[in-house]
Amino acid sequence: MIPDNEKLSNPQVTIAAIKKYGFSFQKKFGQNFLIDDHVINKIIKAADITKDDIVVEIGPGMGTLTQYLAESAGQVIAVEIDTKLLPILAETLAPYDNVTVINNDILKCDIEELVNEVKEKKGFDYKAVKVVANLPYYITTPIIMGLFEKHVPAESITVMVQKEVADRMNAAPGGKDYGALSLAVQYYSETYIAANVPPNCFIPRPGVGSAVIRLTKHDKAPVEVKDEALMFRLIHASFEQRRKTLKNGISNAGLPGITKEAVGEALISMGLDENIRGERLSLAEFAQLADILYDACE
Predict the structure, then answer these.
(1) CA-wise closest residue to 61 among 40, 45, 42, 38
(2) Which residues contact 73 (CB under 8 A, 6 or more apart)?
(3) pLDDT tens by residue, 164-196
(4) Rounded CA separation 192/131 (Å)
């Protein structure tokens, strides 16, 4: 273990490491390194990390959060895309024999395969896999949706994201933040915002506030739908032109066999105004709409 004052959560330690290795931040990777131990401890607590867990960390950076994860988890797999950070990680994580650093793009990784390799190599019989990350803002949605859609065997995903994105994931029907992302994330998980994080907790400081959100995967989807892909096509069509009515948005999307009239009739049969906007429909109502239109197209 490393004393807290010698960890990278101490800004002076981070600055010294940056200077030692001549590291330059790369905008293409959206690099903002966390330097606040209070926030790190909130992440660890929100993710409920235990010694029985394998943690997959996306984008460890210099290893700030990784140092704390290594002390809380059984095993840590840290996936870092930037090769320039590998020598820094080799030094900052040297005291921990339960960390495996993988140089790869998380979007190209088979996480289940990585977990199985660590399980066999380290002889570690884990109880749960948990994903933790301080995500680059520009690629937050593709990463999170990729983890869900590939059905990665993780119990939960606890991430630092732009506050606006966390609010969208957590939003309820009818609000300005509610949209396709809200519905997609809530179809796969239960959302909980654990902390709001100001820009001064990072080096360099981002231009916006951040938030820690935990996404606990559902054992079973909260709604049943005959055609999941159709439901999500309807959802995306409904929010692509947010100011339009739901039936106009869907009809403009050109979905085979689905007309404006069919959507209007389906909404009326559900007891809804045929001119309602998508932001007013719950996940259950989108599932019901998808089922009605699916049957109509059969």
Answers:
(1) 40
(2) 49, 50, 51, 53, 54, 55, 98, 130
(3) 999 999 999 998 999 999 999 999 999 999 999
(4) 15
Task: Report which secondary-structure segment, H or E, holds 289.
Answer: helix 283-297
The verdict on pTM exceeding 0.90 is yes
- How many alpha carbons fall within 13 Å on the CB side of residue 13? 20
Tokens 């009515």 found at: 245
Rounded to 10°, the helix 180-188/228-240 angle is: 150
Helix segments in 22-105, DSSP class H: 37-47, 64-72, 86-92
Beta strands in the chain, from DSSP E residues, in sequence order: 33-34, 53-58, 75-80, 99-103, 128-134, 156-162, 189-197, 202-203, 210-217
Q: Say whether 133 sits in a helix, a strand or coil.
A: strand
Question: 151 CB contacts (<8 Å, ≥6 apart)?
Answer: none
pLDDT in tens, 219-265: 999 999 999 999 999 999 999 887 889 999 998 888 888 999 999 99
CB distance 107 to 143 below 8 Å: yes
The DSSP-derived string for 82-119 is -GGGHHHHHHHTTT-TTEEEEES-GGG--HHHHHHHHH
Pairing of strands 33-34, 75-80: unpaired
Q: Encoding tokens for residue 136?
A: 């680059």
Which stretch of DSSP H or E encloses residue 223? none
Strands 202-203 and 128-134: what pairing?
A: unpaired
Tokens of residue 244, six digits: 């339009």
